[in-house]
Amino acid sequence: MPRRPLPPRLLRALLLLGLLLLAAISAVQARPFERYDPRTGTMRELTFVNLRQGMKLFREFCRKCHTRGGEAPFLYPESRTMAAWNRIFAERQVDCAKKGVWNELTAEQLDTINDYLYHEAYDAWNPHNPSDWDSWSLYGW
Ligand code: HEC
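Structure tokens for the assembled complex are given below, as produced in the milestone run.
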């Protein structure tokens, strides 16, 4: 006995489900390659040099205090969203910035740290998308 074709209503439902899944997958954001900087109102390109420099500065400068068990809460890039990092650097309302600790660095260096944190932020990349993974090697890990 030949197999009966699937009822058209079921087929339509399956097709719709497939389309929805596809839309959901492609709606997830890939890593950003540029950043709108609200402080200066300019677009910054997130280059390899920028990001690596930002990573180093973040580790050498910010992590001095923001370590586990240190005087300030531990910070890692995924601690905040992209928008939150931008806000922190644009408004500089966090304790250390208000006390002038950040004045040791130039505006350009702080922008570079902002670039790095933005690029690695909580909502900046999708761990389920392999094309987002390769920037791990970008920084020389
Ligand atoms: C000299 C030590 C020091 C350095 C360097 C430093 N911070 Fe801080 N930071 C602090 C302290 C102390 C606080 C206040 C912690 C608290 O509220 O308990 C703070 C607070 C913060 C907060 C708010 C934390 C929270 O969870 O409320 C953020 C975000 C932050 N710093 C980011 C940075 C970044 C980014 C850098 C590098 C550009 C940096 N800090 C460099 C000492 C430092």
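The chain is about 50% helix and 5% strand. The chain has one domain: 34-138. Further analysis is deferred to the final report.
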